[in-house]
Structures are given as structure tokens and as C-alpha cells.
What does this fold into?
Amino acid sequence: VQLVESGGGLVQPGGSLRLSCAASGIIFSAYVMGWYRQAPGKQRELVAFIASGGRTNYADSVKGRFTISRDNAKKMVYLQMNSLKPEDTAVYYCDAALRIGKPDYWGQGTQVTVSS
It folds into this structure.
């Protein structure tokens, strides 16, 4: 099983980034796909998840700014991040879970830095 994230980088406050996660080795449509993040010195936190049928859920801190989506045919999940703030700086991880909130697999993470 592999989850490979891409799309991180350095962006100025107010800017946008789109993270991608490519999955392989799993029956993608069976999994809830999500994005977590971990800032230095803080616990890993759930940012957003999307069920196979498209139901989504977001952390309060990103509602209205981030959008999660998935393409079951391509086995991809995306996180569009707009109006980025310095407090969004973290390593972002893609996960795959058979049950919401209980990740079975993790990606290696991609760094997002929001700074002027």
C-alpha cells in the first residue's frame, strides 16, 4: 500500500496551494480518505475527510477555506487550500481509513509553509 502526497511548498499568507495524494495497493473506493496535519510541537490533527460517496467533513479552523475532493477512478484525493494563514504551516499527511477517524494507512507527508 502506498499513499504519496505532493503539492506542498512555501506560500505567502492569503495564497493557495493544492495538495494531491495518489493511492495504490488498496480498493480505493472502500476507504474514507483524509488529510491530517502536524505542526511543530503539536499533535497531529484531522483537517478534512471525504467518504467514498462524497460526504465531507472539515475542521472548524479550515471551513470555508479548504476543499477536499476525490477521484475514485484515478485513486486520487486532493486538498485545495485557499486564504492560507501562517497557522496553517504544518506537515500535511494523507490517510486512508476503513472507519472514520481510524487511519489504516499514512502517506509520508508534505510540508506546507505559510510565511511572508
Remarks:
- The chain has a mean pLDDT of 96.
- The CA atoms of residues 5 and 43 lie 20 Å apart.
